[in-house]
Amino acid sequence: MSIPVFGDWLQGPQGRYVMAWEQASIDAAVADLFGYNAIQLGLPEIRLLAHNRIPLRQVAGESGLVDVLCDLRQLPFAAHSVDLVVMPHVLEFHDDPHQILREVERILIPEGEVIIAGFNPFSTWGLRRKLPDCPDGFPWNGNYLSPRRLRDWLQLLGFEVERGSFGCYAPPCSSERWLRRWQLIEAAGNRWWSFAGGVYLLRAIKRVHGMRLILPSWKRQRAASKALSAVSKKEANGHE
Q: Among 3, 134, 149, 240, which residue has the least CB neighbours within 10 Å?
């Protein structure tokens, strides 16, 4: 979906700080992924598939400047037809995240991948929502999902979840000057308390158990061709 106030927040210090990390992290994650179809769900203000090499890249959402206008709970894509799905901050700002994940699982091909970005409730960004003077708007009004909880949901759907990455360890300061002063904490946070990053990225692969590659029965074909092969004159004289 397109969050109405996301564009305004994106122009502010917090939005630029968060999206700079997410853009760089997603660019690195999708750069070497191949296939035929890639979908970004929500937040059309940011094109997160720009560095991917898949030929058909589309943005789907419930509003905004999207390529496919649709209900995210009923994606208008055929089953097993999409190679990659990127979801930036969709599940935490929708009232039916389970159904969206089920739809993503349905449209992904076997071994297809989904990349999810979200706010970490166990961080200074998550704690900010519990303070009395916390604003009511985006991004504080979302239902933040912990990486562990999201990992459980994905595993129930048959996904294999890779280790997540975290970023944005500076507190959610409203001043760009203070955000810059906290930049020194980024390297230390990533090394010593990586789980406390303000945002995270989860990457999961759709596994289909019981799949088996059926190959032609080459031995049977060789045996049949040998049985029907012509008998040479020398072999015929030997049998006489």
A: 240
